[in-house]
Design goal:
312 residues, alpha+beta, three-stranded antiparallel sheet, 11 helices, globular, binds adenosine-5'-triphosphate, binds magnesium ion
Length: 312
């Protein structure tokens, strides 16, 4: 069945990205909570229709590690895209000072299975693997969203800025000046997966702004520097990472794309094989992460309020 705006009751805003806003909505006929992404595009009706048609293959993207797609429609020059609402939000807002190794393995295992499914079953390369596109719910499930299904949509998104945190593989950064279409292969996603894994583990983007004061310095480090790695010894008293975890991340962050590990190699490595035999309380971790986030937000509000009373 097709979804349209009249069936939706708009609720809270969930977040904003470079291309639009995501709102929580209630689909009244079915009483299902959904997340609706609004993407503003200056396109004619034919192109908008082409995008809606291309998005349709998402109805086949049914997998435990992929956010469910409910439908898309357009009004004037906006595309509205309705997907499963994930009630704990995206990982960037949950990882705090970093997640413990067992939770990390569970999260990245789910990411690899989702990516492998997209590639093997739908011939889709994700193209935008990063913590904001990894969603979590209170049941402890981890699912990917925002993968590149629609060529027309990709072309229409105005790439005005590359942002201050790049998850692009070295070959893509180099290839930007040439033909980026030929340089993007599935192994570019594996690099982004490696960087995202590091960020989730450490609680910060692996090329920190303190060291790389501008985007150019950061991109230069990605292309010419040694790849970042998981520390063997943890910072300020925290435990370090096992050699399995470190090897696995290094397998993602091989600079030559041909030598980077495949999804099969990543899944068959002991870091993820061991995870399958372990009990990990993901539900408990999510509850804990949400509570941490609540108190962090409260602190920020307090600081803002006191700054105001002090006349700033
Ligand atoms: P970018 O624009 O660079 O891709 P982004 O991924 O953060 O960044 P959006 O995809 O527009 O931007 O999403 C904005 C925010 O909305 C996300 O960071 C996430 O926290 C939230 N969000 C997106 N989809 C959902 C969903 N299905 N359920 C719950 N929250 C969501
Ligand atoms: Mg996103």
């Amino acid at each position: 069945f097709a979804i349209n705006m009249n069936q939706l009751q708009l609720e809270d805003e969930l977040g904003r990205g470079a291309y639009g806003t995501v709102k929580k909505v209630l689909h009244k006929p079915t009483n299902v909570a959904m997340a609706m992404k609004e993407i503003r595009l200056e396109l004619d009706e034919t192109k908008l229709n082409a995008i809606i048609m291309e998005l349709d293959i998402l109805h086949r993207a049914s997998h435990p590690s992929i956010v469910e797609f409910y439908g898309a429609f357009f009004i004037e020059s906006c595309v509205y895209y309705c997907m499963e609402y994930m009630d704990a939000g995206s990982l960037d807002k949950l990882y705090g000072a970093g997640v413990p190794e067992h939770v990390l393995a569970r999260i990245v295992g789910s990411m690899v299975r989702g990516l492998k499914f997209l590639k093997d079953e739908l011939q889709i390369i994700h193209r935008d693997v990063k913590p904001t596109n990894v969603l979590v719910n209170r049941k402890g499930e981890i699912k990917l969203c925002d993968f590149g299904v629609s060529g027309q949509l990709e072309k229409s998104l105005a790439k005005t800025n590359i942002g201050c945190q790049s998850y692009m593989a070295p070959e893509r950064i180099k290839g930007e000046s040439q033909n980026s279409l030929t340089t993007y292969t599935v192994s570019s996603d594996v690099w982004s997966l490696g960087l995202a894994t590091l960020e989730i583990a450490l609680g910060r983007y692996p090329y920190p702004p303190e060291t790389y004061s501008n985007v150019f310095a950061q991109l230069t480090a990605i292309v010419h520097g040694d790849p970042p790695e998981l520390p063997e010894v943890g910072e300020d008293g925290k435990p370090g990472y096992s050699s399995e975890a470190r090897q696995w991340v290094a397998g993602c962050l091989v600079k030559r794309p041909e030598e980077r590990w495949s999804y099969k190699e990543l899944l068959d490595h002991s870091f993820l094989v061991n995870d399958a035999h372990r009990d990990v309380d993901m539900r408990g971790w999510v509850a804990h992460a949400l509570a941490w986030r609540e108190s962090d937000l409260a602190q920020q509000r307090e600081a803002a309020a006191s700054a105001e009373t002090n006349g700033h």
